[in-house]
Amino acid sequence: MSRLNVPVAVRWADLDAYGHVNNVAVLRLLEEARIAAFWRHAEARDAGLWPTAVLDAGPGATTHTLVARSEIEYLLPLGYRRDPVTVEMWIGHLGGASLDVCYQVTAQVEGTRTVYVHASTTLVLLDATTGRPRRIDEVERAAWEPYLEEPVPMRRRSPRRS
Questions:
Q1: Phi and psi for 140 in degrees, rounded to 5?
Q2: What is the number of alpha carbons within 13 Å of residue 158 lying toward its C-beta?
Q3: Whose CA is closest to 8, among 34, 46, 40, 43?
Q4: What are the DSSP calls for 84-123, one per residue?
Q5: According to the model, what pLDDT value does residue 56 have?
Q6: Sign for the pseudo-dihedral over CA of 62, 65, 66, 68
Q7: How far apart are CA 139 and CA 125, in angstroms?
Q8: Mean local confidence (pLDDT), 131-157
Q9: 31 near 114, Cβ under 8 Å?
Q10: CB-neighbour burial class of residue 53 (10 A; exposed 0-12, middle 13-18, buried 19+)
Q11: Distant-in-sequence, close-in-space partners of 146: CB < 8 Å, separation ≥ 6
Q12: One short Pfam family name for this protein (predicted)?
């Protein structure tokens, strides 16, 4: 089981009136981790930091991504902390033109790993010229398959009755 562990700083501006990271700010933390792990940036092309960073970023990129779906479960309130949280990521599903990125936002609390958030994002790869979905290519699939495991466990709501 291989996971990407991306440190992301919690900013003071991420807090809401209740003193914990706002739900919208959690989406930003996930986005920051996802961008670091999956997109190649011009200044980091040869750094070799993330083996999953195979999508080109910036002007001239041939692939765009569309967030088709996001699902988040907030398990515990996450307050401000000086140390970054760890966003653990893996691939829960690798399809023809889409992938599900799974997340756990964790931090060490008194020496114990604590999970604050479970989440999942469905990304669709788009041809930048046409805007239409495109197939995951061999390079991308080879980079992402080692991180393929069961999707994040989410509690499902039962249907509401009228």
A1: -65, -45
A2: 2
A3: 34
A4: PEEEEEEEEEE-SSEEEEEEEEEEEETTEEEEEEEEEEEE
A5: 86
A6: positive
A7: 14
A8: 94
A9: no
A10: buried
A11: 2, 51
A12: 4HBT_2
Q: Which one, of 42, 40, 58, lies nearest residue 50 by Cα? A: 40
Please, are residues 25 and 14 in contact by the beta-carbon 8 Å criterion? yes
The lowest-confidence range among 89-98, 106-115, 121-130, 148-157 is 148-157
CA-based angle 117:122:127, to the nearest 5?
A: 145
Q: What is the CATH number of domain 4-147?
A: 3.10.129.10
Distance spanning both ends of the chain, measured CA to CA: 43
What are the residues whose beta carbons fall under 8 Å from the beta carbon of 150, sequence distance 6 or more? 92
- Are the C-beta atoms of 106 and 88 separated by less than 8 Å? yes
Break the chain into its structural domains and give their ranges.
4-147
Residue whose pair of structure tokens reads 């670091």 in the numeric block: 36
- Residue 46, pLDDT > 60, answer no
- Summarize pLDDT for 77-87 with one digit per residue, the tens: 999 998 999 99
pLDDT at 122: 98
Question: Contact 16/70 with Cβ under 8 angstroms?
Answer: no
